[in-house]
Amino acid sequence: MSLPRFRAWRPGAVLAQVGVCAALAALPAASAPAASAPILQSPATPAEASPQEVTPSDSVLEEHLRQMLVGKSIYLRGGYLDNNLSFNEYGGLIGHSPHGSFTLNLLQIDKLHLEKRKLQLEGVRYGLHFLGATPNEDPTKAVDRVRITPKKKIVRITIDRELVVKPKKKKSKDKDDKEQPAPPAPAATDNQTTDADEASATSGEVPTGDRGVTTTTSPAHALKLLNGAVGNVFSIGLDDRLIAGMPDFWKLYYKSVADHTNFQPTASGVLFDNNVDQKARLLSNIEAPSNEYAQTGGVAGMALYHAVIGADGKPAEIVVSRPIGFGLDENAVDTIRKAEFQPAIKDGKPVPVMLDLVVQFRIFSKRTSVEGEPESAAAPSGSILPGPYSAGHQ
User: Fold this and answer.
1) Is the pLDDT of residue 268 over 50?
2) Residue 10 to residues 144, 233, 236, 254, 256: CA-CA distances in angstroms?
């Protein structure tokens, strides 16, 4: 029985990080973010702000975050694979986590709770399994999502919030000796940060002990920081920033999809197999390893890659043509890079040529660790490239 098909967003029609932040600061209209009044109205001056003024609006903010995130399929930036993740108020990871492909980082958020000091989310993780689109089909839509979080397990994510505090007051020296409000305080007081600090906090992992959450007297600043943190942690769809952080073989794939064109090598002088006198030849086997997620999810099948084989016989540019997902394409590309080829010959000289390479992924027996036949039958005889499939999910 096949799993529900996940319809991935087109790269050219998705929200960028700026759009995510702007959407979180606007009231929703249906399921899409709308440009309207901010959820949390900031006071006229920082001196007028107080935690009491912010607290009633937290319920509105929480409801909007729930509408934006709960029940939606969103990507976790950074490829973090741990099931318990904590982020600082800028969206930088606290501690360490193993990394993986974006195809292993699709989340569905089921629960959300906004507290004074943090945003807590719970959900499950899914892997993307590309099914193999027909020539006239959008390949980004021929995708299944397969749950990889075990049953009765959840993914927990915590994002720190900047703490809103009362501005400090000082006594006046006038005759009445009355208390007067202090001059407006800067946005961040106790733990004031610079732009460089903020960039550093979001660029990598933060030591677990360094959890000095910043404070502010401005609710508007705290909301802006929370918006930015959510945008740094999650991507609603495949936005430009998420794609920009992918390896080149994925970037080129999504560029070809967006442009509705076939991949063209970026280097000049690359020939095709039918334009050479002697074709390039593979001298070693391409046996890409599977991974625990694919084995558990029963994901197997064939994937196709374009590879430019240089005049020296070494693979240069590689791009996904028909992916399989589940982190397997990364394994395939890594294996292709290590493969040995005899270069193509044109007019008696070795020349660079582009090859199409098929990589097969199989299911292995859990008892014997030997290769097993997929439960589904292979594609009909005569098919040049059977589409990827999930064993047991046909």
Assistant:
1) yes
2) 15, 20, 11, 9, 12
Backbone torsions φ then ψ of 358, nearest 5 degrees: -100, 130
DSSP 182: P
Name the more confident of 381 and 141: 141
Helix (H, G, I), strand (E, B) or coil at 139: coil
Q: 247-390: which CATH architecture?
A: 2-Layer Sandwich (3.30)
Question: 169 pLDDT band (50/70/90 cuts)?
Answer: confident
User: Residue ranges per domain, the chain?
Assistant: 11-242, 247-390
Distance of alpha carbon 332 from alpha carbon 68, whole angstroms: 35
Nearest one of 223, 227, 345 to 276, comparing CA atoms: 345
> Whole-angstrom Cα distance, residue 229 to residue 339?
41
Which has the minimum average pLDDT: 175-184, 212-221, 252-261, 341-350? Answer: 175-184
The continuous run of DSSP H or E covering 337 comes out as helix 328-338
**Range 228-249 average pLDDT:** 94
Strands 349-351 and 344-346: antiparallel
pTM for this prediction: 0.72
Half-sphere exposure of 103 (CA within 13 A, CB side): 21
pLDDT tens per residue across span 113-157 = 999 999 999 999 999 999 875 556 666 678 899 999 999 999 999
Residue in the block written with tokens 């969206």: 91
Q: How far apart are CA 59 and CA 226, in angstroms?
A: 15
Assess contact for 103 and 325: CB atoms under 8 A: yes
Residue 279, φ and ψ in degrees, nearest 5: -70, 155
